[in-house]
């Protein structure tokens, strides 16, 4: 299972065309050695652009079947693939196979939210929430555990998996599902290292987009999670992975939220200061959480009232 390293890896980044996924690709490509990075997402143009930006080369190299790659230096390749479609993931796996590439690290970073009240969401947006946030994970994880023995899987959930709240109905339930999937895979697939990141806000393309529809109350509740830069967020995650942690948060409020949700999740996985989290969690669940939830309820009630006033 070994230590997390940027060197001598074959890294597959789902959702690597922008935001945090792209930041990870950059990190592996620029700081690793003898590492091959493959970024994957739906949009060819975004992938080409990201590959050119990271490699500094004029031409972006696509992963094709039967590719011959000389090892020794770092390479970055792209491959368009809708990871929510199993057939496309299988095709990606075949291309990797026929180029003799077996991923050693798989970053399941595809995802995104469209915050809005449940009643205002369109049916397509509901469906996209499930596909982009959950199906991408099950599909890629399934192919990985079947074909890439001992690959390190890194899932990207969200702090909303510990505390789902108003505005995130299209998103938080799927991020909670990732957490459940991770717990089960840790029991079933013991030859794989399985990490799960629960980020707070960070400033990506996706974050800018979600802020366009985010209700004021959602913004208010998530206030304690100031948006980090992608770079800071990525560095914090890499550091924790290197220290051997497998349940990872990116800010203090994320750490507090995780503490309220330790229970049956703590088996062989570890997080920073987990004994302290455990004790804090007990105290918080007894005293702080009920008070906070009461405050939260009033906050939400006030917001509903102010909306009613606006429409009448
Ligand atoms: N930003 C934030 O504040 C937070 C984000 N997160 C999570 O962290 C992860 C990264 O977030 P962030 O960098 O903001 O995301 P972005 O929205 O900026 O980027 C998402 C990436 O996923 C790709 N993607 C989306 N759907 C698919 C698909 N079906 N198949 C393949 N690729 C896909 C996109 O590319 P393309 O469009 O080309 O497919 C893009 O590269 C996500 O899982 C997100 O939910 C968690 C907590 C906070
Ligand atoms: C003990 C009780 C304390 C309670 C404090 C509550 C504070 C809540 C902060 C929640 C932060 C959630 C960030 C979500 C980011 C995300 O996933 C989106 N940006 C989607 O991309």
From TrEMBL:
Highest taxon above the source species: Eukaryota
Transmembrane intervals: 274-295
MF term (GO), any: nucleotide binding
Pathway info: Sphingolipid metabolism; Lipid metabolism; sphingolipid metabolism
Keywords of the record: Endoplasmic reticulum, Lipid metabolism, Membrane, NADP, Nucleotide-binding, Oxidoreductase, Sphingolipid metabolism, Transmembrane, Transmembrane helix
GO biological processes: 3-keto-sphinganine metabolic process; sphingolipid biosynthetic process
Pfam short name (any one): adh_short
InterPro entries xref list: KDSR-like, NAD(P)-bd_dom_sf, SDR_fam
GO cellular component, one term: lipid droplet
Catalytic activity: sphinganine + NADP(+) = 3-oxosphinganine + NADPH + H(+)
UniProt family annotation: Belongs to the short-chain dehydrogenases/reductases (SDR) family.
Function noted in UniProt: Catalyzes the reduction of 3'-oxosphinganine (3-ketodihydrosphingosine/KDS) to sphinganine (dihydrosphingosine/DHS), the second step of de novo sphingolipid biosynthesis.
Name by which UniProt lists this protein: 3-ketodihydrosphingosine reductase TSC10
């Amino acid at each position: 299972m070994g230590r997390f390293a940027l060197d001598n890896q074959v890294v597959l980044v789902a959702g690597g065309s922008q935001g945090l996924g792209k930041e990870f690709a950059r990190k592996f490509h620029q700081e690793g050695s003898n590492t091959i990075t493959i970024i994957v997402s739906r949009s060819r143009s975004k992938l080409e652009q990201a590959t050119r930006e990271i490699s500094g080369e004029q031409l972006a190299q696509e992963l094709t079947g039967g590719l011959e790659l000389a090892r020794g230096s770092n390479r970055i390749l792209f491959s368009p693939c809708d990871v929510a479609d199993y057939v496309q993931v299988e095709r990606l796996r075949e291309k990797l196979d026929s180029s003799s590439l077996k991923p050693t690290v798989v970053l399941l970073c595809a995802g995104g939210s469209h915050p809005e009240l449940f009643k205002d969401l369109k049916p397509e947006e509901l469906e996209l929430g499930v596909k982009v946030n959950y199906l991408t994970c099950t599909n890629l994880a399934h192919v990985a555990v079947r074909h890439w023995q001992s690959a390190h899987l890194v899932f990207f959930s969200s702090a909303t998996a510990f505390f789902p709240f108003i505005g995130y109905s299209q998103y938080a339930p799927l991020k909670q599902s990732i957490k459940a999937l991770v717990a089960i895979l840790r029991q079933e697939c013991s030859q794989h290292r399985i990490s799960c990141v629960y980020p707070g806000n960070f400033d990506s393309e996706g974050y800018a987009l979600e802020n366009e529809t985010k209700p004021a109350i959602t913004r208010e509740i998530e206030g304690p999670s100031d948006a980090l830069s992608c770079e800071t967020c990525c560095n914090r995650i890499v550091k924790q992975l290197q220290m051997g942690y497998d349940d990872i948060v990116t800010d203090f409020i994320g750490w507090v939220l995780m503490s309220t949700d330790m229970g049956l999740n703590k088996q062989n996985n570890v997080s920073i200061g987990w004994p302290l989290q455990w004790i804090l969690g007990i105290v918080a669940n007894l005293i702080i959480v009920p008070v906070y939830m009461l405050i939260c309820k009033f906050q939400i009630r006030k917001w509903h009232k102010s909306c009613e006033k606006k429409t009448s």
